[in-house]
Design brief:
Length: about 140
């Protein structure tokens, strides 16, 4: 199962040149760019690990691509994404986010039905990846 999170999630994986162009777009908008990674891509897991600090005031996409490559070397079997943060007053939110690396095998998710009181049906998404301990999931 292919994890679909962020911009471009339904397109084929971006090439490094396409990633560089998206980073250049973010820089042109004045957004701060950061790199994050995780081995638990659950849709509600919005707290991925940061790879270094956010890169404020960087004007060259090669600097950010270097950080992406270093993160890929360190975590080749993790999900890695690039985020662009718009710090404009009143917006102050992620403006762009896309996955730039994924494990070769994506185990996917299962939807579990849980019966509750008063015959209420609740549903829970469970990641197969979390059945293994952190650090050995892929």
């Amino acid at each position: 199962m292919r994890v679909t999170q962020g911009t471009f999630c339904y397109l084929p994986d971006l090439t490094d040149e396409q990633i560089r162009k998206q980073i250049q777009y973010a820089i042109n908008q004045g957004w701060a760019v950061s790199v994050e990674y995780t081995d638990d891509p659950h849709p509600r897991n919005s707290y991925w690990e940061m790879w270094g600090l956010p890169l404020f005031d960087v004007k060259d996409p090669a600097t950010i691509m270097f950080e992406v490559q270093e993160c890929r070397k360190q975590f080749p079997n993790h999900y890695i994404k690039v985020l662009a943060f718009n710090s404009t007053k009143g917006i102050e939110s992620t403006a762009l986010s896309f996955i730039v690396n994924r494990p070769a095998n994506e185990p996917g998710f299962v939807l579990r039905r849980i019966e509750s009181n008063d015959r209420v049906q609740r549903y829970q998404i469970h990641s197969y990846a979390t059945e293994k301990p952190e650090g050995s999931r892929y």
